[in-house]
Amino acid sequence: DQQVKQNSPSLSVQEGRISILNCDYTNSMFDYFLWYKKYPAEGPTFLISISSIKDKNEDGRFTVFLNKSAKHLSLHIVPSQPGDSAVYFCAASSTSGTYKYIFGTGTRLKVLA
Amino acid sequence: NAGVTQTPKFQVLKTGQSMTLQCAQDMNHNSMYWYRQDPGMGLRLIYYSASEGTTDKGEVPNGYNVSRLNKREFSLRLESAAPSQTSVYFCASSEHGYTFGSGTRLTVV
Fold first, then answer.
1. Partner residue facing B31 (CB), from A32, A99, A105
2. End-to-end CA separation in angstroms for chain B
3. Which end of chain B lies in a sparser environment, N or C, as judged by fewer CB atoms within 10 Å?
């Protein structure tokens, strides 16, 4: 049973436009969420996080939105750049225990120049 | 500024062979993790260690063993490799968010 789901395996966006990556979770105990970016042949790198006490967190071109009632989070990238082309993973954890994250299956973003 | 270092980067094993994947971190993190990444499956947790001296199973522990040698090092051992263990393996350490190593690409033939 996949507790964290990324239902879009891939997404193509024109350079300069907005990229929206979605993530759904099923476990109501999850209260901390991360987005990671992964380039080929490299380890995932941290992008942005959000705690369940917030519904939005912004860092430059990256904004994460959290809708707790829908158990849904999304990552917005504005404007999208070719260097953003990568696989994006969302991850969720319950901070009441060990920071043991459950990852989604990833969305491959391609930003077209 | 090494962060998390994994060795080796690539390995080919024959079915039934054993090997140990090494991981070391220099950030003084308490928690360390081993994940595997497979196409369409995302990152799945194999084992983790919340602190030195403790280890626990994750989602997919079968066929693996781990050792938390000290605070810096967390190794993953395959006692008898199987083709189903062909994957990319990532080690991570954390206080809150993870810092990942660059991965070990393992092929079992």
1. A99
2. 36
3. N
The owner of tokens 């980067």 is: B9
Amino acid letter for position A81: Q
Structure tokens, A66: 């959290």
Residues in chain A closer than 8 A to B103 (CB atoms): 41-43
- For chain A, 113 residues long, give each residue's pLDDT as a single digit of tens: 679 999 999 999 999 999 999 999 999 999 999 999 999 989 999 999 999 999 999 999 999 999 999 999 999 999 999 999 999 999 999 877 666 889 999 999 999 99
A86 CB-contact burial (10 Å; exposed 0-12 / middle 13-18 / buried 19+):
buried
Q: CA torsion sign, A112 to B40 to A70 to A72?
A: negative
